[in-house]
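Sample entry as discussed:
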Amino acid sequence: MAKKRPQTRATRPQLTGGEIPVVGAREPCPCGSGRRYKACHGRAAAHAVTELVHRPFEGLPGECDWVALRELVPAATVELPLKDGLPADVPSVTLATVLPMAWPALRRDDGSVLLGLQNDTASGDISRDLADTLQRALTAQPGTPVQARRAPADGPRLQDLLDAEGTFEPVVHSGFEFWIPDTENATPEVTASLERANAAAIPTVKLAGVDAAYWCETPEKNHLRWVMPHPEEQLLDALARLHAAGRSGLGEGTRLVGSFRAHGLTVPVWDLPSGVGADDVEKPAAEFAERLAAALSSDAPLTPEERRARGGLTNRQVTLS
C-alpha cells in the first residue's frame, strides 16, 4: 500500500492583537492559531468583560451617593452634567434609581434622557455598562427605551463622559411619579409598573447635615444607612473605638448594628426606634461625624475591648456587591 502523504495546512496570516475580530466562542480564532476563539484571544476578551471593578464609581463627584442610589434608595433622581455638554437635541440627562419596565434608559418624547441605575449589568464594570447605555440613549429616537446589551470591553466609562467638576445632588422622591410627565397618556403597562413600584418603595429621606446618609422607615423599626468614603480597615477601627466607649449611637434607643460593604465602600447601619424620624437624627448624626473624625485620626493600637467591638462589627458585615 502506498504511504499516505502527510497532510499540510495552509499557513494562515497571523494577525496582531489589535486586529483580532470577535467571533463565536466555539469558532476557530481569527488569529490562525488553530484553537477555538474562547481558548485563544477570546479568553482575554471574556476576562476584560467579566473582571469585577470593586469601586466602579470612584472618581465621580458624589461617589458615596452613587453607591447609595444603586443599593439603598428606592426612588431618586440626579441631573447629570456631561463633560462635553449636552447635544443640541437633548435638553437634559437625568439619572434615576429605577425606570418603568426596568428599562436601562429612556429617551423621552421631548428628547431628554433618563438613565436607570438599579439594573442588572452584563459585565463586571457598572460604570462601563452605564456609559454604553447613556451613549446609546443620547442618539435614540425620542419616545423609545434603550435595551440592555453587553458593553464593549474597550468602551468609555462614566468617568469619561460626565463632568468631573460637576455636582451630584440627589433628589429623593416618595414615589415614582417622575416617570410620567403626562399620566393621562401613559400606557397601561407603564401605569401598572408605576403602581407596583410605588407599593414596594420604602419611605426614605436624605439627611441634609451630613453626606450620603439616608434615613428609612420599615414596619418594625427605622434605620439610618450612611455610605462613608474612608478606607474600610481604618473606618472599622474608628467605629470600634466609639462602640467600645459607648459613643457609637445616635441618641436614646439607637444602636450601631453593623455595616454593608457595597462597591468598595462601607455603609454603617443604625437601628432607630420607630418614632425617630429623619429630622430627629440630623443633629445626632452631625455630632457623630465629629466623634468619628477624631477616632479616624487615632493610630493607637486597639484595646482588648475595642478589638472585641471590632470583631462584633465585622461579624455583622454584609456584602451587597
Summary: Residues 118 and 270 are 24 Å apart (CA to CA).
